[in-house]
Design a protein that fits this description.
Two copies of one chain form a homodimer.
Chain A: H1 5-16, H2 23-31, H3 39-51, E1 56-58, E2 66-68, E3 74-79, E4 85-89, H4 96-104, E5 107-118, H5 120-125
Parallel strand pairs in A: 3-5
Antiparallel strand pairs in A: 1-2, 3-4
Helix pairs in contact in A: 1-2, 1-3, 2-3
The first copy, chain A, binds a DNA duplex through helix 1 and helix 3.
Chain lengths: ~130, ~130
DNA sequence: CTAGGTGCAAAGCGTTTGCTCGGGG
DNA sequence: CCCCGAGCAAACGCTTTGCACCTAG
């Protein structure tokens, strides 16, 4: 892959962020140091970086995709209060695939999981929710 | 909710199907007995039925939403070979929420999970995949 | 009679793509 | 020098919405 200043900036923006940004958020941020960049370029590069195994795309239910610089297998939770997206480390899901294979013959190759709920901050802010 | 012939037909179409149809597939099917129906009406009614707790919407990663007449909690797997979407009954996921609450303080209220892989039929058809 | 539903078409939104120009190697 | 990438704008696919007419209750 040929180097470009824009891709470099996009890659850095996602890696440095811990908010699992959307393409649009990356665009906003990258424009600071690169005012001429276009949204199309951001999408193109995000997809290239995903294809190249440098980033992960998170398909959010009912919302635009988000991007993640963490490449180890994990899942995500979205807070219905503030919209924050946080990581879930792999817990008891490891045996799931073999359990499914045994029971259904379906050989799982990827998980797309997003949990929805209320984060600690929002629970503290509004205990009734 | 006021009765309408169209909503009736849409509801029946989703309940009778075991293929987790998209809005468009429902549209195609309902047009047989209701040629004047519009796609907008199909979307409107599907959403009303989901809001009313009569159907579930399945957010497919990287693809249009699908609808499901099964209302008990379960997940879905999509075959990367043939695109078939099948049900996964709840397995060892039940303790996941409390595990997450303990470790992160995030109170889970909903799961959005789609597993990707190869179904038994496709595995038989093309053993190398 | 009237609130809510339909059909139609246009708009919305996130994302992709065709084209021409520019810059990396 | 050549080709991939950038910038721009138009197109795209799925979904929603505004509007005028219709229909269940």
């Amino acid at each position: 892959m040929k180097y470009s200043r824009q891709r470099e900036a996009i890659y850095r923006a996602v890696r440095q962020s811990c908010s699992h940004p959307t393409a649009d958020t990356v665009y906003e941020q990258v424009r600071d140091e690169n005012p001429q960049i276009s949204l199309g370029t951001v999408y193109r590069n995000l997809n290239q970086l995903v294809d190249g195994g440098m980033l992960t795309k998170i398909a959010m239910p009912y919302d635009g995709d988000r991007f993640d610089g963490r490449m180890d297998e994990h899942y995500h939770m979205i807070c219905t209060g503030c919209g924050k997206v946080v990581d879930v480390n792999l817990l008891s899901l490891s045996q799931l695939d073999s359990e499914i294979l045994q029971k259904t013959g379906f050989r799982v190759s990827a998980h797309h999981m997003v949990l929805e709920g209320t984060c600690e901050d929002c629970a503290a802010r509004k205990p009734s929710a």
